[in-house]
Amino acid sequence: MAYETIIYEVGDGVGTITLNRPGKLNAFNDLMIDETTDAFKSAGRDAAVRCVVITGAGRGFSSGQDLGDFQERGEGISIGEHLRHGYHRLIRQMVSLEKPVVGAINGIAAGAGCGVALAADIRIAADSASFMLAFSRIGLIPDSGINWFLPRLIGYARAYEMAITADRVPAGKALEWGMVNQVVPADQLPEISAAWARRFAGGPTLAYGLTKRAMNRSWDSTLDEALEYEAHIQGIAARSHDNREGISAFLEKRDAQFTGR
Ligand code: LHQ
Q1: Which atom of ligand 1 is nearest to the CA of 108?
Q2: Ligand 1 atom having least distance to the Cα of 143
Q3: What pLDDT shows up at residue 53?
Q4: How far, in Å, CA of 121 to CA of 85, rounded?
Q5: What is the spatial distance between Cα 186 and Cα 189, in angstroms, rounded to a whole number?
Q6: What's the pLDDT at 74?
Q7: How far apart are the CA of 23 and the centre of ligand 1, in A?
Q8: Exposed, middle or buried by CB within 10 Å (0-12, 13-18, 19+), for 198?
Q9: Percentage above 90 pLDDT, the chain
Q10: Cα angle: 123, vertex 117, 138; to 5 degrees
Q11: Residue 1: predicted pLDDT
Q12: Average pLDDT, the chain
């Protein structure tokens, strides 16, 4: 599929999705939601892709829903249906992708753009980036999974504060709160996030994917259920080529050559 609103490139085992409507700080219109979802789907199907990076072109990561586009549709539109058919499919695609997703947060991540940033597994932020739950400014509640992701990441009080103040949380504070893994100088973000991604792309992809599945599932599990699930999927990991290779490499005192299988 040829994309109009995003750039999708594959190289060195990494699929890089660049949201590309910089004139609107990469606000999501319907096409951009569909294209981003499709790119994650392709990354899932492509064995050559073992890690995905999502970033934004220009000075923003994403300013969320394109409000002009939404208003043009008029009164008749159901927000619930818009969310179900759009953002929900995108967020589910990111979370169910059994490969690490690195958010290279290059600038402001607002509204649903913040939801997409939070659906990544690892976030590397430029020192100029910020996060903002813009929703309450326009009389809405956070959506795109933010009510699920954010209290889990930073706790209820901070998440609720972000929701009802709609203040920008700068990268440094986001790091202190546990929303991002690393803050880097803005001009070094592409290079540093690509280095993280290449490292993940050289890892045991099957084990990384199963770990993501187990951790996401644990939110709704008792300890007994989580232990049982670990035992079940460890059985899958233990049958992988990468498990055999990892053990051989350790015993032979050499670096493991993981293939992701
Ligand atoms: C934009 C946008 C934008 C269009 C900047 N749309 N043009 C789900 C379901 C249904 C309905 C509603 O929403 C949702 C989920 C959501 O995402 S709700 C939240 C939607 N997002 C917002 O409310 C954020 C709106 N944007 C802003 O508050 C500011 O632009 C921020 C704080 C993000 C950045 O401020 P500045 O750095 O000062 O940039 P700017 O405001 O000058 O924006 C640059 C341009 O981008 C500007 O266009 P222009 O032609 O004047 O240069 C903006 O109009 C445009 N833009 N966000 N969401």
Answers
A1: 33
A2: 15
A3: 98
A4: 23
A5: 5
A6: 76
A7: 10
A8: middle
A9: 96
A10: 140
A11: 73
A12: 97
Q: How far is CA 132 from the centre of its chain?
A: 16
Q: Taking a C-beta distance cutoff of 8 angstroms, is the pair 169, 162 a contact?
A: yes
Which residue reads 């753009």 in tokens?
113
In which order are the strands placed within the sheet that holds 51-56?
Answer: 6-11, 14-19, 51-56, 101-105, 122-126, 182-184
| Span from the CA of 110 to the centroid of ligand 1 (angstroms) | 8
* 104 contacts 190 by C-beta, under 8 angstroms: yes
Q: How much is the pLDDT for 238?
A: 97
pLDDT confidence bin for 75, thresholds 50/70/90: confident
Residue 161 has pLDDT above 80, yes or no: yes
Active site residue 88: yes
Instruction: Pick the catalytic residue from 38, 66, 121, 143.
Output: 143
Task: Write the single-letter amino acid at 169.
Answer: V
Average pLDDT over residues 124-152: 97
Whole-prediction pTM: 0.97
Query: Buried (b) or exposed (e) across 135-174, using 16+ Cβ within 10 A?
Result: beeeeeebbbbbbbbbeebbeeebbeebbeebebbbbebb
